[in-house]
Amino acid sequence: MPSVTATSRPVNEGWKFTHVGGGEVVKKDEWISVKKFPTTVHVELLEEKRIPDPFIGLNEWDVQWIGEAEWSFKTEFSVADEEASASNADLVFDGLDTFATVLLNGKEILQANNQFVAHRVPVKDTLKSGTNELVINFASAFRQGREIEKQHEKLHLWNGDSSRLHVRKAQYNYGWDWGPVLMTVGPWKPIYLETYNARISDIDIRIDIPGNLTAHVDVQFTLDPPTKAKASVTIKKPNGNVLIGGTNIPVTDSGVAKFKLSRGVYDAWYPVGYGGQPIHAVEIEIADEQQNVLDSKSQKIAFRRARVVQDELIDQEGRTFLFEINNVRIFCGGSNWIPADSFLTTMTPDRYRAWLRLLVNGNQNMIRVWGGGVYEADAFYDICDELGILVWQDFMFGCGQYPAYDSFLKSVEIEAEQNVKRLRHHPSVVILAGNNEDYQVAESYKLDLDYSDETSDFRKTNFPARHIYERLLPSVVEKFSNIHYHRSSPYSGFGKPTTDKTYGDLHQWNVWHGSQEPWHNWDILAGRFVSEFGMEGYPNIRTVDYWLGGNKEERYPQSRTMNNHNKADGFERRLELYLVENFKHSFEIESYVYYTQIMQAETLASAYRLWRRNWKGKGREYTAGALVWQINDCWPVTSWAIVDYFLRPKPAYFTIKRELKPFTVGMTRKEKKTFPDELSAAVFTIETVLEVWGTNSTLSEKQATLEVTSFDLHSDWTDTWTKNIVLAPNSSTELFKGDLPGQPKRTKLSEIPKTIIVSARLLDKSGKVLGRYSNWPEPFKYITFPDLSTAKPIKGIILDVEGEEDVVWGDQAIDLVPGDPQVITTVGLKGREVKVRFLGDGTA
Q1: 752 Cβ contact partners less than 8 Å away, ≥ 6 residues apart
Q2: Residue 468's closest CA among 487, 443, 485?
Q3: Which residues are 690's β-sheet partners?
Q4: End-to-end alpha-carbon separation of the chain, Å?
Q5: Per-position DSSP letters for 302-316, written without gaps between them
Q6: What are the residue boundaries of the Mannosidase Ig/CBM-like domain, all occurrences included (predicted)?
Q7: Could you report the per-residue pLDDT of 397-421, keeping only the tens digit for each?
Q8: Does residue 341 contact residue 184 with C-beta atoms inside 8 Å?
């Protein structure tokens, strides 16, 4: 038989779909042509204008029937004679959502039940030259899940329907505390026809880089079917030139090429802010004995050493939990990522790039792919590689007591193997975590959870998923990659519960959830690595008006529509708790949006500011990372996101951006009460102590001037002092501790303290501002704000314009003080007048 080079082509034309059995929206036997492939049912019905937009008003509840119906997709595709003559022909399904039966020319070729699994189906004997019919029938994932649950058991969970725990589908589809219930269904990833005599079925590139940064590269590849052949393997530089390579490598069923590259021969990959992101390519070509090319593949790689360091600390209990890249310890300031749309087939590489570019432009260097969504598209990780974003990747288990019966475990094992293989070559992916908060669920429901037990199988306990997280997943990760495995997020290890603040990573939800601490307590709530924390804030008023859909009667904070677009339990009480503790505010919608945004901005900036202070140099990395929950939304909603669904940054995005600059300055003021007579409670002295520190994320020390100016908001008094300082490299540095300037000691609670605002700046030799921060007395509700004047400090400035069209602002939620002008760039004003909001502007 003549040699046939492996070919692959998409099966993406001529698709139609129908509602099996028909209904009001899609009639029986009515086949609708799809607009774009791959796709899902909601997307197509929206394109056809047959259903209302579930992102508007209460429409979410008018489309629930879609997730409980059965659907069918079909197409016809032609096969050329030369394709049919190949020794092998496969149909490849990258992803089916979720319970699907596939027929080719009337013959069943596949039953699928896991959204996260790809399927390769040999169809040589079923395929024919000429026209072929492909049909995919989808059952209701919701109804199937309920049926499976009946066969097994109902399990504990947070968020969504309990049947989701038995279904390997994006868990957020079932509804979450920030997202709607929208049960997608359909062929959500591409389908290909591949023909070949022999193909490269797997590429496993392992790059081991020890402390001396010499790179040892193993390129392993597998042929299907086993074929006597020769291979060439080439590693190319980012500019396309050859770095190193090998030829005439003998292959039967597999082959291997080994290379050793000394430090300096290759260009290393670094996170953004620490170096470049050179992406190399490994190219493999397989030829038969007559030198006919059978297959060729290329895979992008990069050279970097990545470690998770859990060392004992010098002078605190516990251990570090930090990321080290190429021997450089990195403070990870970043965000959590949820799926960026309820309808993932609408996500494009451009949309992914816009989101990830926002992250980098916000001075963030890490993103955590949360375990209730999906293993993201290849484009997502490619862009993270390119931009230097570190990726914390969860496996897709979230907030539940998952089962571990045999069929479930088998499906999970295939899912894990496929996705580890898909992600392992990305330099951005530095950790794989077993789940999101499942150990916390076990703790809260008091399930069987002996952290000292490192040997049991766990499947027969009431927390059977420990078998997945402590047996199955780590074995898969170890076998198929060199990526660090972490059992969960959060997970402390060392026999400690997930709430322990001295080991592992921490989800710190005692601001908002839990004990509902004041945000001013972030310093005492710190953990070694805070992988979740957050505060809600309304989105841009244009986003609010979008989901209102023009319904002006619902345009107030407590309306039914507003409530439907905030899915958090008890959000009314929690929002008001933090608002009323800190602000004088009204319920007029524009003001309510403003005050929740300022509250969110202050809360989150405070966390980053205080936790960067805890990064004190090697052996004293008391907090090594902070990942805000969350950067994005999957629909228009009020949530913890710092950027809304339409990529409109909230003010918190900008305050975080400022706190993650290479150089920052921070301050706290705390009252100290002393009693000279230990038997008396009536005689005391209250002093206000000011502390100032700076941070430096660069790898060189920085000489600068600290300038501290204090203002009395209600008089002309000011005070300024300066100090030459040196900021230690990759560390925070304590700069000052003493009395708050201008604040007298008090001996009576009836003495009202002065309203002293302290402005601190870091200046380089040229006078350029490296970092600034203004510290105000809190709570803000006690402040009597004077009339707007450039001669007085101003708090919480947010800019906007009239009209629906967006403006791109360079900064928001700034504080202004006399003598320190700030410039805010803007794009898209188009002559419109700028509106200004600030605390005490008279519209509260």
Answers
A1: none
A2: 487
A3: 669, 738
A4: 82
A5: -B--EEEE-PBPSSS
A6: 689-782
A7: 999 999 999 999 999 999 999 999 9
A8: no
Task: Extract the tokens encoding 229.
Answer: 């052949």
Q: What angle do CA 235, 241, 242 make, to 5 degrees?
A: 35
Instruction: Pick the closest to residue 638 from 566, 575, 564 (CA basis).
Output: 566
One-letter amino acid for residue 808 of the chain: V
Catalytic: 437? yes
Spatial distance between the Cα atoms of 462 and 448, rounded to a whole number of angstroms: 6
Cis-peptide, bond into residue 733, ω within 30° of zero: no
Three-point CA angle 38, 44, 49, nearest 5°: 160
Q: What is the DSSP letter of 781?
A: G
What's the CA gap between 602 and 535, in Å, rounded? 10
User: Residue 259: helix, strand or coil by DSSP?
Assistant: strand
**Which residues have CB under 8 Å from 750's CB, separation 6+?**
none
Q: Of the listed 60, 194, 285, 437, which one is catalytic?
A: 437
Q: What is the pTM of this model?
A: 0.96
Phi, psi of 338 (to 5 degrees): -105, 170
CB-CB neighbours of 438 under 10 Å = 30
Tokens 């099966």 -> residue: 11
Report how far residue 250's alpha carbon sits from residue 680's, in angstroms, rounded to the nearest whole number.
Answer: 89
Phi-psi region of 594 (alpha: psi -120 to 50; beta: other; left: phi over 0): alpha
How far apart are alpha carbons 188 and 251 in whole angstroms?
Answer: 36
The full 3-state SS of 622-664, as one line of letters, equals CCCEEEECCCCCCCCCCECCCECCCCCECHHHHHHHHHCCCEE
Distance (Å, whole) CA 451 – CA 110: 41
CA distances from 382 to 188, 238, 396, 423, 427 (A): 20, 14, 20, 10, 9
Look-up: residue for tokens 């904070």?
Answer: 557
Q: What span, in angstroms and rounded, lies between the C-alpha atoms of 63 and 619?
A: 55
DSSP state of 274: S
DSSP assignment of 32-79 equals EE-SSSS--HHHHHHHTT-S--TTSTTGGGGSHHHHTS-EEEEEEEEE
Cβ 692 vs Cβ 771: under 8 Å:
no
| SS3 state at 257 | strand
Contact predicate 372/176, CB 8 Å: yes
Alpha carbon of residue 584 to chain centroid = 33
What is the per-residue pLDDT across 349-358, written as a single tens digit (0 to 9) for each? 999 999 999 9
